[in-house]
Amino acid sequence: MIKSYVLKNKEKRYMFQIYVGVDPLTGKEIRTTRRGFRTKREANSALTHLKIKIENGTFFVNKKAETYQDMYELWIKQYEYTVEESTFIKTTRLFKNHILPALSSYKIEIINVDVCQEHVNEWAKKLKNVRILKSYAAKVLDFAIKRDYIKTNPFAFVDIPVKIKKVVDIDEKIENFYSREELLKFLSSLKMEGNFKAYTFFRLLAYSGMRKGEAFALTWNDIRFNEKEIRINKALSRGKENKLYVKSTKTGTSRTIKMDQETLNILKVWRSKQKQKYLELGINTTEPNQLVFSNVHNDYIQPSKTRKWILQVQEKYNLVKITTHGLRHTHCSLLFEAGANLKEVQDRLGHTDVQTTMNIYAHVTRTAQESAIQKFESFLTSN
Description:
The chain is mostly helical and 383 residues long. It has helices at 40-56, 68-79, 85-103, 113-126, 130-146, 180-192, 196-208, 212-216, 261-280, 305-316, 326-338, 342-349, 354-361, 366-381, and strands spanning 2-6, 12-22, 29-37, 223-224, 229-232, 235-238, 244-247, 255-258.
């Protein structure tokens, strides 16, 4: 039966309630209510449409979720148990900043391909990683399918817009790594600054290729001075409420890398300085699980600290500016220049997929480029 009711502003609306079946778990009748229709005719049309869906078996009762936002809140609770805390935080940010503002109010059962395509197109105009957004947005609807709210996922039929790549002048391209000469100048300038902790940290990154988070999670028992090795099996990351915590490495696997003697000697000097400095603060740093790099409270260093360290020396000595992560690029680039092969670089940097090494780190420095043309010229002019 269609009934009328009056809103607070005195406007008239129509509603109806209809029997849709029996809950197989409780044996109780299930009824669904629809309201907000401006005319009785509009309500009657919706009622007829709903009766047809019930008779055809295509109507599904949403016991807990009606909108995309509702379904997201159910999905995210389960998702949290399947990933690292840092991954969970990054995912919730993607939804908060991009996906939910676009989809949250849509009814789950009426989201179609056109709606999804429209928002993917909008994301593509603003963001580079639109595929990631599409993938995560689709996960919520996959979750809805598993729980019988919908039958198909419209995101499966959405196309990713293709961006026309602009031609970039190679001379104008800013590369985030140092040449051999630039690296040596950077480390020399840093050494003169008197911040031995920062100098040791950046020296370690440049000569090991490890990630910043991996270096900040290092403990002294990870460094095997006699074997000239460093074991990398964890990384510092940011979790809930912006708290720092130690997790597995980015790839989830550990690796052990060989180190040069000079870098190990610098680490020994830093360990001695650390012991003395923290003893003055009443802190014992002789435990095996002592962090190699820690703050004044002997706790984790904020990852953003390295930007201040590196910019300070770059600006003071008028050096080429690269990021902290650029030292990992630098290590990789110089490994190639020194003659290391792709497999050796992949293993040292901890890439599970060799394609990552090829796509991201296969930089060729100007020295290597000049060497290539010299070899080419020599080959053609030789008798």
